[in-house]
Sequence to fold (550 residues):
Amino acid sequence: MTDVPWHIAVVGAGPAGLYAAHEILRRSATAKVDLIDRLPTIGGLVRSGVAPDHYRRRDVIGWYERLVVASGRFSFFGNIDVGQDITVDDLRRSYDAVIFSHGCRLDRRLGIPGEDTLGSHSAAEFVGWYNGHPDYRKRTFDLTGKRAVVIGAGNVALDVARVLLLGAAALRSTDIADHALDALAASNVREVVIVGRRDVEHCAFTTPELMELGTLDIDVTVENAHFSNVFDGSPGAGDFAADLKRRLLQTYAERPSRGNPRMVLRFCSSPVEVIGEHQVQAVRLASHRLRSTGDQVCEPDVAVEDVETGLVIRAVGSRGELLPGLPFDAESGIVPNVAGRVVDSPESHHGTAYVTGWIKRGPSGVIGSNKHCARETVATMFADLEAGRGNVRQHEHVTAAGLAAASGRTLIDYAGWKQIDLAEVGAALGSDRPRIKLADWQSLCETGSSRTARGGQVSANRET
Amino acid sequence: MTYVITGTCIVDTACVDVCPVDCIHPRPGEEDFGQAEQLYIDPTVCVQCNACAEACPIDAVMVAVNMPPALQPYREINADYSRARR
Fold:
């Protein structure tokens, strides 16, 4: 497509960034890509978000890694925080174009009293903790009670519930982090109530995740569902998944208990308060029940109930945060853009900064959604570069590596990440586990930089 | 005999790109694509060439006869979606 050896930086090594790197290297025979991440690892949420019992899905990252590395024009720079160690402007002065794919790190909040009480957490925290994300290594969760409550009717809530209910024996054959496995082995939690605001046909659970529940040693029950939307038996393809979900949930609602740990899917309910002075004692739920009057089902009736629990996890979505040097729309939680080209205002077009993934379109979709998103962004970027709208590079030969060195960070390169990857798999050899994750900054950085005498310190203090 | 896409599918569409008979849907650009939970192979069109299975970055494609009991429902799901689409 183009013969110019453009040098592109991609910030954020999750699926969005990897798809973008792959697309650039696929379309251009000469362009070079430097993929940068704050962590010393490649994978983003595929490594730290996808649930441990679904660890085989992480293979997609290795697949695309191999493709980009095979080009010979790919470099990885890990342990570099864009915004803190080097600035967005530094990058824009050093590369022909920069694509930002740093995702949405923060969690959406419930906005109810007691949300920050001890024992109330975001799913981001809990999931990061059990998946060995080094930022969450030191977090603790109260697993002494019999019941946990998860707010949010999506796949993340199901992940959290499965991890809480599967039990240590089943988790031991996954890539769950060691410290989480130990904590869960001592857990008393036997019931998880997942609370969804809307009714069955609007829940965000996907069919495969719901179907999988039927194969596990977990009793699934359904509460307060009205199954109010009736399909006539011949749904259009667009309603296909919704109808499948509805039938599945109806099956679970009718299935008798087998004495297993219990997952309760509760619909048409909203949390209005987290109750407890120094730590969580209960969640107050307002539940809508539909009362039929004659031929119409309408007239909502609200019942309020306190559900006893010591652990509340909110899984109601993610949101992005401001990165200094890029515009940010606080309301939508994304960087304003047109087809991936960052815009400051409707009139101005930077033409040198691009976004892909969640920070471009919001925290939605599945892993593969990022591929098409990246194709659009990369097409926009190449069109701009070929029209002469690329960056004016002031530092022709300085890359992220040089910028990072100036800031004192030890950068973890691709070989260093492979060192980490192999160490994790190696640590699990002879056991049922696919890998044992390195879950703290120090061991990640030491393992990632250990193989050559690089000089300089391992800067390990990112503990939060 | 057919190939079947299971629930592991992440809608990467590498399979769609290589299928010689266009039996995998929804495709990018089709109305359903934005909301698709997974992709589906039409068993009445599939010619068992294995291209999709080789292209899939996440091992979501299986040969129907090799599927374990827990994944058998996906045969019907792929068939039902394809029928509803026609």
Notes: The first strand of chain A starts at residue 7 and ends at 11. Residues 231-238, 347-351, 453-461 of chain A have pLDDT under 50 and may be disordered. Chain A touches chain B through 27 residues (CB under 8 Å). Residues 334 and 360 of chain A are 6 Å apart (CA to CA).
